[in-house]
Specification:
Chain lengths: 102, 102
């Protein structure tokens, strides 16, 4: 993959970054399966789609976990917002598909 | 954590989402340690900070991995852009700190 001019130390670091990215992508794939299940469950019951209290708890927890792990808490909060935006996008896609199917 | 009115199935799904989020946050913390090392290595050598060819390979690889894992390739690409923006932010912070120290 790397050209001949890539120093071995850089190639080693990049290989580790690539391994972590693969792991993160696979965990995100699992996470979106779970949020799809949550969406189906909420549609089946009388639960509202959004839950601000749950979201507040998630933000506080991820900020604390990030801080412990040496990551900026602000980044953890941005990350959660980024993922939740995608979850909403999925839910909209599902809603549109259901409308089309009717 | 959950109120009494949370259905057990929803609580179960949320617990799994929380576990995955914790794992992802910890892997991101490791990933940023590695990109910091890359930044230090590049600063020590004559390597340019940005490497568009490396980035192109990363995008193609993550899109393929996402597709295999049942995740939208577009999301994987957005995720990488989100993380790289944070890496650049870290590098700028380090550069500012070095200027201040001089």
């Amino acid at each position: 993959m790397a050209g001949d001019d890539t120093p071995p130390e850089l190639a080693r670091l990049r290989a580790s970054i690539d391994n972590l990215d693969a792991a993160i992508i696979h965990m995100l794939a699992e996470r979106f399966k779970l949020t799809r299940d949550v969406g189906v469950l909420k549609a089946r019951t009388t639960l509202p789609p959004a839950d601000p209290e749950r979201e507040k708890r998630q933000v506080a927890r991820l900020r604390a976990l990030a801080d412990e792990a040496g990551l900026e808490p602000e980044f953890a909060e941005k990350f959660l917002a980024f993922v939740i935006a995608e979850v909403l996008h999925h839910h909209e896609t599902i809603a549109r598909a259901q409308t089309t199917d009717t």
